[in-house]
Specification:
The protein is of the alpha/beta class and about 170 residues long. It is about 45% helix and about 20% strand. The strands form two sheets. It has a three-stranded parallel β-sheet with strand order 1-4-5, sandwiched between helices. Keywords: Membrane, Transmembrane, Transmembrane helix.
């Protein structure tokens, strides 16, 4: 991941994508174990700051999400935005990581509309009666603070009558 993420070695993207796709299949198997129908309705990803985007030229979480979405035939949409730049998480303690994630993310302006539309597509006769399953993709999971902050914002962005189940997929755990 470091070769790809920090050294712009893009030849690693396809292997990272296939590894993420394997993890996606594990999410579906987990749903089966809990007697749920194995499905994900939408894939989204953790946004990077504009500073980080300019440094790297890409969002590694978005690229992984797009590979999984392509092979899984699931739509991918940008539902989150980063409100401020933070220093690299790898340089922080666990406590600092958790504290630093407060108010970093918010839902994009049309997130509620995007989710409402998906509810209507999934169940046109009664869009309020369904649970929407979202897969949130990031590259590395350490404390869970980033995933938790993003999931909180997604749940905040939708009308309370709707239910979201948010699953996370990360390429690595550190």
């Amino acid at each position: 991941m470091a070769q790809y993420k920090f050294r712009e070695n893009e030849r690693y993207l396809s292997i990272l994508g296939y590894m993420a796709l394997f993890a996606y299949h594990q999410v579906l198997l987990q749903q089966l174990m809990y007697k749920q129908s194995p499905r994900i309705d939408l894939i989204t990803y953790v946004p990077v700051s504009e500073t980080r985007l300019q440094e790297r030229g890409f969002n590694q979480a978005e690229q992984l999400a797009r590979i999984v979405a392509q092979y899984a035939h699931v739509p991918v949409q940008s539902l989150l935005q980063r409100n401020r730049h933070t220093i690299k998480q790898s340089m922080k303690s666990r406590g600092n990581r958790i504290e630093d994630m407060k108010d970093v993310f918010s839902a994009v302006n049309n997130a509620n509309h995007q989710l409402q539309s998906l509810f209507k597509i999934r169940n046109p006769n009664n869009p309020d009666s369904q649970t929407l399953r979202i897969l949130l993709v990031d590259d590395v999971y350490t404390t869970g603070s980033t995933i938790n902050a993003c999931a909180h914002q997604l749940k905040k962005s939708i009308d309370p009558v709707h239910k979201l189940e948010i699953y996370s997929l990360t390429w690595a755990r550190s």
